């Protein structure tokens, strides 16, 4: 649109780009540079070019530390993320589908419960108490179910908004063709949810992968530490080895970075879904 | 006639058909709720309700002993714990206020004709996806009073930087600033989505009438991006009131108790084995969150209807 603004504001652009480099890129550059320094230079904590690059050495050291703790942590975090997000997607889609399609007096209650799940801070120690009663405290299945319970509200809201755009005529056609409710949902509707499901998967896996609080409370102990817990524990152990600490930070930043590069649009769509409707 | 029928069909059964038949044959079975309701009920609703009871007890996971409101009395008698409450409020207000202001300004900037818009949007948003612990540890190093990059850069221009995390009067605000650094990208995105949804004709009409950019910001963008503002305020207030991991990674509530918030008090009391007191902290956090969010949400969305 030429009438909108005669020309681009180059001066403002230069200031904005410069400011973005100082404010946002320098911290990341600092992480990368410190991660590849040797121990003495990293301890200076300054922003400088590494004198000798120790990429492989630092990588091996941080992986080997405390009996390959980081590898175990990555495996644990992967299991946690994949399992909890998979359960969340299927269960949230089922709830959102029936909630959106059927008008009943329960809908108000569901609305209230879903909003509560978004707003209310979870009660920590009572959750531990419940998990203990079920024999799930300090177990991976327990933590997976906790992540599902705390994250499902957001997933339900995203699915519901999308399901509202799928015409009901489709359901009716499938019913006339003799599809059972189960088949109708899993064969007809669920495949259509692909695009919003990807959004939910990407946003929730970044959230679960980065989660620190829930593993801290519900899955303590070194045996089944997640990457965030490992990083936190390293920070007290590696006070004199900043190169290894930052190598660790760098490594756990890579999965979200990959998500961001491939699914930027989806993440943006998911996270801004509330902006227009309010 | 046909339209009414169509509407009826659209509304689905339930109201028109006999109840028994619907329940049997509805293509939208209630048992679809069941698995989610079970997990959510057992691991979220039960603990939430149980917290009200256990906050009134002296509690070791295995047995509890009813002591009335002693935990709450203790909480409000202990200055270190009460200050946690005020810090929570300060932290939430500072972070969400800055996120709204900076997010809106950045969104206006990033929807204008500017070079490198895609790059700028990405770079502002990326910290949202990075591990909070990682960000916290990085900034703890950058904010090191003697050797940290921030104070060294300030020294170059001749400013003596404060001990960001070691000075009791700055610690909480420093953490809040890092929170804003990490979270402002999300606020910006939400504002961008709100601004983009405003019809271009309004801006054109305003320009034809000779409105200045400032006037169109205050008269068009601000009122029409209101749903986005509501979303940002609510989301960042909820996040700010509940925030724990960044504070824990950077200061662990210190120096002293000067950056303790309710969430970190809950964790400390839990670690110390005072489960009842910890749960009382949880109930207080619950009350604070609902007492702030519900009226605010009601007030903000009511205003929206009036517009």
From TrEMBL, chain A:
GO terms for cellular component: plasma membrane. CDD domains: TM_PBP2. GO terms for biological process: transmembrane transport. It is found in: Cell membrane. Residues 74-263 form the ABC transmembrane type-1 domain. The chain crosses the membrane at residues 12-36, 68-96, 108-131, 143-163, 184-209, 242-263. Keywords: Cell membrane, Membrane, Transmembrane, Transmembrane helix, Transport. The keyword Cell cycle does not apply. It is a multi-pass membrane protein. The keyword Transmembrane applies. Gene3D superfamilies: MetI-like (1.10.3720.10). It holds the Pfam family BPD_transp_1. Belongs to the binding-protein-dependent transport system permease family. This is Raffinose/stachyose/melibiose transport system permease protein. It comes from Asanoa hainanensis.
TrEMBL record, chain B:
Coiled coil: none annotated. It is found in: Cell membrane. It comes from the Bacteria. GO terms for cellular component: plasma membrane. The keyword Lipid biosynthesis does not apply. Keywords: Cell membrane, Membrane, Transmembrane, Transmembrane helix, Transport. InterPro entries: ABC_transporter_permease, MetI-like, MetI-like_sf. One of its GO terms (biological process) is transmembrane transport. The keyword Membrane applies. Residues 1-21 are annotated as: Disordered. The chain crosses the membrane at residues 31-54, 89-111, 123-143, 170-196, 217-238, 274-300. Residues 85-296 form the ABC transmembrane type-1 domain. It is a multi-pass membrane protein. Belongs to the binding-protein-dependent transport system permease family. This is Raffinose/stachyose/melibiose transport system permease protein. It comes from Asanoa hainanensis.
